[in-house]
Design goal:
Oligomer: single chain
Radius of gyration: 25 Å
Helix content: 40-55%
CATH architecture of the largest domain: Orthogonal Bundle
Largest sheet: 8 strands, mixed
Bound molecules: 6-phosphogluconic acid
CATH class of the largest domain: Mainly Alpha
Number of helices: 19
Shape: globular
Order of helices and strands: EHEHEHEHEHEHEHEHHHHHHHHHHHH
Length: 464
């Protein structure tokens, strides 16, 4: 395999780990970073680091390949602006941050005018992934991908069948769109798991170590995944000072850096229902209103007792059903994004790239990959062979969990929105007939009929 020389700009923990991973695979990496302390840490880790941008650019053979690992947003534009006067046609810039795909589309167009290649690569797997094998979602011009594909494939995580979890997915912002959706699904997955923890704690009266055992068991079954595995580990962790479960001492107020919100926004923009992803984002916003929640809990306190009709097996099955439904929303969003932006995304390829290295890696993704490989891709993942049966089998469990949580006053926005999505998408007739009539009543927005084609308007007040 041909070895390459690559410049890595941004030597924070993700950049440094990625650089170490690349050099482990026999490629030459020259790093640069504005912060002198981070340059020092990278050198101590054994990396070749240039002190100035000029030295960095001079050290790179032409055509240059420069991989940016800087904070998404304005910093990426600043770095590109500082590089641009010194770049030459044929050079390739890669953005490996969690960039907004709209920005990636814009940057790709701008750089193309200068005849500079640009790839937006979604990198998932956190610090460990970057160091030992991330999942890599590549977007941009195919020519740029061909330049760098050997290197990228060499550093990626390997699925159980040995294939690299890295793929070129489409032009422009395709890679970052898929990474954004990965994160939206990550939000939904995490929220669904957190709701199960709440149901175990408040609904069933389990403590952290009891719940840890249950999640550990779930990780041996169809829910086996990185997020279930780390949930069990997190719940086992004790606080060294108090010896209490650490989770009980962590403030229940979650932050976010934008990618989940962007996924929900993209779904709204494209008119794709993705309520479980959106509810996961909203749930973080509810959690962040700590003071307000404390005040309201005093004022409007409710003690509805335990969820008596609940048990852990029902919960496990309900979680699997909700997970299938949440993934169906994410894949429907990618399908719509692909059509809208003409990316021609291969959804089986996306599922394959997510099988290892990334945060949502799970055995279940093997089935998702197969579902989209079938000659006729499913209309909706919920109907895919292999998944539809499991969903049908476990749906009654999801109904029990939603009903019991409602009775016990335990908020489960992700689980209940998954059920509502399922029930909405499997209803051939919904009450939007009334919505259309109301719109036509107050705004003459017209409506369509079931018995003939065309747009109709009624003088609703004429008969009053
Ligand atoms: C990954 C993660 C990574 C990061 C998220 C966290 O795929 O490795 O998704 O990108 O952990 O951005 O996002 P929030 O801070 O918004 O939860």
């Amino acid at each position: 395999m041909s070895k390459q020389t690559l410049g890595l700009l941004g030597l924070g923990v993700m950049g440094r780990n990625l650089a170490l991973n690349i050099s482990d695979k026999g490629h030459t990496v020259i790093g640069h970073e504005r912060d002198a302390a981070l340059r020092g840490t990278a050198r101590q880790a054994g990396l070749n680091v240039a002190d100035t941008l000029d030295a960095f650019l001079t050290a790179l053979p032409s055509p240059r390949v420069i991989w940016l690992m800087v904070t998404a947003g304005a910093a990426v534009d600043e770095v590109i602006a500082s590089l641009l006067p010194q770049l030459s046609p044929g050079d390739l810039v890669i953005d490996g941050g969690n960039s907004d795909f709209h920005d990636t589309e814009r940057r790709a167009k701008d750089l193309k005018e200068h005849r500079i290649g640009f790839l937006g690569i979604g990198v998932s797997g956190g610090e460990e992934g970057a160091r030992h094998g991330p999942s890599l979602m590549i977007g941009g011009e195919q020519q740029g991908w061909e330049t760098i594909s050997n290197l990228v494939v060499s550093i990626a995580a390997r699925a159980r069948d040995g294939t690299a979890c890295a793929a070129w997915l489409g032009e422009g912002g395709a890679g970052h769109f898929v990474k954004m959706t990965h994160n939206g699904i990550e939000y939904a997955d995490m929220q669904l798991i957190a709701e199960c923890w709440d149901l175990m704690r408040r609904g069933l009266g389990l403590d952290a170590s009891g719940a840890a055992e249950i999640f550990k068991g779930w990780n041996e079954g169809p829910l086996a995944s990185y997020l279930i595995e780390i949930t069990s580990r997190v719940l086992t962790q004790l606080d060294p000072e108090t010896s209490r479960p650490l989770v009980d001492l962590i403030a229940d107020s979650a932050g976010e850096k934008g990618t989940g919100r962007w996924t929900a926004t993209a779904a709204l923009d494209l008119g794709v229902p993705a309520p479980t992803i959106a509810e996961a984002v909203m749930a973080r916003a509810v959690s962040a209103r700590l003071e307000e929640r404390e005040y309201l809990s005093e004022l409007l306190s409710k003690d509805l007792g335990r969820a008596v009709g609940l048990d852990v097996t029902t919960l496990e099955r309900a979680l699997l059903a909700a997970k299938i439904i949440a993934y169906a929303q994410g894949f429907a969003l990618m399908d719509a994004g692909s059509r809208h932006y003409n990316w021609n995304l291969a959804l089986d390829q996306v599922a394959r790239v997510w099988r290892a290295g990334c945060i949502i890696r799970a055995d279940f993704l093997d089935d998702v990959a197969v579902a989209f490989t079938e000659q006729t891709a499913p209309f909706n993942l919920m109907s895919a062979p292999g998944l539809a049966d499991r969903l049908t089998e476990h749906l009654s469990d999801l109904r029990i969990v939603v009903a019991e949580a409602a009775r016990a006053g335990i908020p489960i926005p992700a689980l209940s929105s998954a059920l509502a999505y399922h029930d909405g998408m499997t209803s051939a007739r919904l009450p939007a007939d009334l919505i259309q009539a109301q719109r036509d009543y107050f705004g003459a927005h017209t409506y369509r009929r079931t018995d003939r084609s065309g747009d109709f308007h009624t003088d609703w007040t004429g008969s009053e």
